[in-house]
Automatic annotation (TrEMBL), chain A:
Belongs to the mitochondrion-specific ribosomal protein mL43 family. One of its GO terms (molecular function) is structural constituent of ribosome. The keyword Protease does not apply. The keyword Mitochondrion applies. This is Large ribosomal subunit protein mL43. InterPro entries: Ribosomal_mL43, Ribosomal_mL43/mS25/NADH_DH, Thioredoxin-like_sf. It holds the Pfam family L51_S25_CI-B8.
UniProtKB/TrEMBL annotation, chain B:
This is Large ribosomal subunit protein bL21m. The lineage of its organism: Eukaryota, Metazoa, Ecdysozoa, Nematoda, Chromadorea. One of its GO terms (molecular function) is structural constituent of ribosome. It comes from Caenorhabditis angaria. It comes from the Eukaryota. One of its GO terms (cellular component) is mitochondrial large ribosomal subunit. Belongs to the bacterial ribosomal protein bL21 family.
């Protein structure tokens, strides 16, 4: 295993898929690296590298993407370094490196330009943390502000010094009038 | 605003409901004023507040710096700042204010930033039929939008 494992460890093959449900799985709490967004948001993507072949049919989509959309995206995200790297007979890949040192690589073989646009958009909006099963859809800095509720939180302290059982404390209190009370009220009127 | 609303409730309760002990109205106005003054003092002391907001079809209890993960690819870009306006409740260490159902959006501000948009971890569903040469794997994964709550601020209470 490399020192810094890749962001996505899923392999789209059947045996790996079996291990995902029945083997050991990653689960984590919702996290964002570098306290991002607490005071201001900074883009977590630092570098994107497009590896493609100038001739082969597999990298047509990547070539079209580089020709038509890459410059525009580069202008929109001035903080991101973008490399376009022609390599002969290579499998076209898009590799993204994030601020927390992790990297994510997408195999762009035989993908159309629209698919690649979608993938690049995903790379740009990821934070760099691996996709894991979430323990909860929310995470908080402070667990509770008013304190945890217990059954005795709002009980009156009068009970502390009484000798129990006490007739006064053990009557059932309700805002609804009982039949007896209703009749008593009627008689009084 | 709050004052007039609560006055309405009290008068209704006194007329319509029957209590086991006869209800007595004790200087409501004065009590309310005291409570509201105490709350506005608490709020101005810049202690941590929490709010219950309605986003994405459910209620979330949020405070400063919380992360919430919303379902779906929402029409927001990463880095966008949004204001959550459906606030059902605000509370501090010593008080809570409830809306009916919502609080006035001028008096409570919940600001959030879109921090990440990603996909959820795939859930797998297998269909395997014996002696039938049938093996189906469904990878079910959804898109998610992660918000960070920047601040929960209450004022003009």
């Amino acid at each position: 295993m490399p020192a810094l494992p890749r962001v996505d460890r899923l392999k789209p093959i059947y045996t790996a898929a079996k291990a995902l449900n029945f083997g050991w799985r990653f689960s984590d709490f919702l996290k964002i690296p570098n306290y991002n967004g607490i005071s201001r948001y900074t883009n977590q993507l630092h570098r994107v590298t497009f590896r493609f072949c100038k001739q082969s049919e597999d990298s047509v989509g990547v070539r079209n993407f580089i020709e038509e959309r890459l410059v525009e995206i580069g202008k929109q995200n001035p903080s991101v370094v973008i490399y376009a790297q022609p390599v002969r007979n290579t499998t076209p890949t898009i590799r993204a490196e994030y601020g927390n040192g992790r990297q994510l690589q997408i195999n762009a073989k035989n993908l159309s330009m629209d698919d690649i646009t979608k993938d690049v958009h995903l790379l740009f909006s990821r934070s760099g943390n691996p996709v894991t099963k979430l323990e909860s859809r929310q995470s908080a800095l402070v667990p509770s502000i008013q304190g945890q509720w217990t059954p005795i939180t709002w009980l009156s302290t009068a009970m502390n010094t009484e000798n129990l059982p006490n007739k006064n404390l053990s009557t059932f209190k309700s805002c609804k009038t009982s039949a007896t009370e209703y009749l008593q009220q009627k008689n009084a009127e | 605003m709050l004052r007039s609303m609560t006055r309405g409730i009290f008068s209704k309760i006194a007329k319509n409901r029957r209590f086991s002990t006869e209800p007595q109205i004790i200087e409501t106005e004065k009590v309310q004023q005291e409570v509201l003054e105490a709350i506005s003092k608490e709020v101005s002391s810049s202690s941590r507040l929490f709010a219950i907001v309605y986003v994405n079809g459910r209620q979330w209890k949020v405070s400063d710096g919380d992360l919430i993960s919303l379902e779906g690819n929402l029409p927001l870009n990463v880095g966008d700042e949004i204001k959550l306006e459906k606030v059902l409740m605000v509370g501090g260490t010593n008080f809570s204010i409830f809306g009916r159902p919502f609080l006035d959006s001028n008096s409570v501000e919940v600001d959030a930033v879109v921090v990440e948009k990603n996909t959820t971890n795939p859930e797998l569903k297998y269909v395997h039929l014996n002696h039938n040469q049938t093996k189906i794997v469904n990878w079910k994964s959804d898109e998610a939008t992660v918000l960070r709550i920047k601040s929960v601020i209450a004022k003009n209470i």
